[in-house]
Automatic annotation (TrEMBL):
Subcellular location: Cell junction, Gap junction; Cell membrane
Task performed by this protein: Structural component of the gap junctions.
Alphabetic keyword roster: Cell junction, Cell membrane, Gap junction, Ion channel, Ion transport, Membrane, Transmembrane, Transmembrane helix, Transport
Cellular component GO terms held in the UniProt record: gap junction; plasma membrane
Topology within the bilayer: Multi-pass membrane protein
Organism: Amphibalanus amphitrite
The name this protein goes by in its record: Innexin
Membrane-traversing stretches: 100-122, 168-189, 259-284
Amino acid sequence: MVTKSWLANSIDDRDENVKLVEAASSTLLCASSLFGSPVTCHHADPDRISNDVINTYCWVTSTYTLPHLLTASDRYPTSHIAYHGVGAHAASDERRYHGYYQWVAFVLFLQGVAFYVPHWLWKLSEGRRLASLLQEMHVPVVDAEDRSTRLTNTVRYLRTSLGSYSSYLTRFVLCELLNVANVIANIFITDRFLGGQFLRYGPRVLSHFITGSSTSASPMSETFPKLTKCNFQLVGGSGSVETIDSVCVMPLNILNEKIYMVLWFWLALLAVASVLAFTWRVVAMSATALRVPMLRATARLADPRDVAEVAERLPLGDFFLLTLLAKNMDSVAFRQLMSELARELGPASARVMATIPKEIADSQTLIRQAVEKRGAAVE
């Protein structure tokens, strides 16, 4: 049985990305059992209010760090900083709130679904047409008589449906374009989700590891702090509001910082690969001169003369279908397919004559017959 034969193209490479993202989501969903509570907060008066209440409040709302305390300075020396981004501060100091942590698993799952969409659309649009044409000919060992019958059926179908695969190629190109848009959109959505910290996350992490600065927080700790602050508003008996300042430990950020570091490089690689693949697809399909080298590179066992003859005569959509067959079909079977297809298509002059309107062809025939009769009369 043909397994994923109709999926052998760049669109379905995104399956690996889907698996990666979904695996990361599953890891995060199970992380609370590995690292304990997702947030553990401590404050100065646990007798008045339970730590469980503070923990739940800070998890449901958000915690914050102080950007001016991420790096030691004359105003805030290291002795005044409890942890990068955490320390004594004034009420007017800028705060950077972190509310993403409770949504990480869901966002990663949605990204996995988004990466599956182009694959699903192509699979739905393709309708297993390529698998039907292959007829188990991806298997190297096939009975010679069965292979001959299947090849004859495939060639007959390709000849009958000649010129009908333009929309097939168009749908494929649109799915590849959707891949490019999908990757780029995911990069910017992730950056927005992490508060504008994702676009330069990978290079900043590498730069920090290379320089090894000890006076400033690493980009990983800056984006995914392990220690944050949280303010709980407590209403007293007289109605006055009292602010309880808490320090919270965020153990899940140990995972988050590494997952998003891997995700940054993976998305960057996918973005470059997707753009290059789409550009190559457009150039290769637009330039007729590249058809023969492309097909020869895939069908190494096929006769170069058959390859050249078929590549020059097939319309663009049909040629694209043939390249997919070459990638999925056994090399020996494809060599026979090319031989039969070259013979079936006939000489180039026949194809040219087939495009001439019937009236013109008939008039040319009458003129030729008249010339022949006149020549015979003269003799």
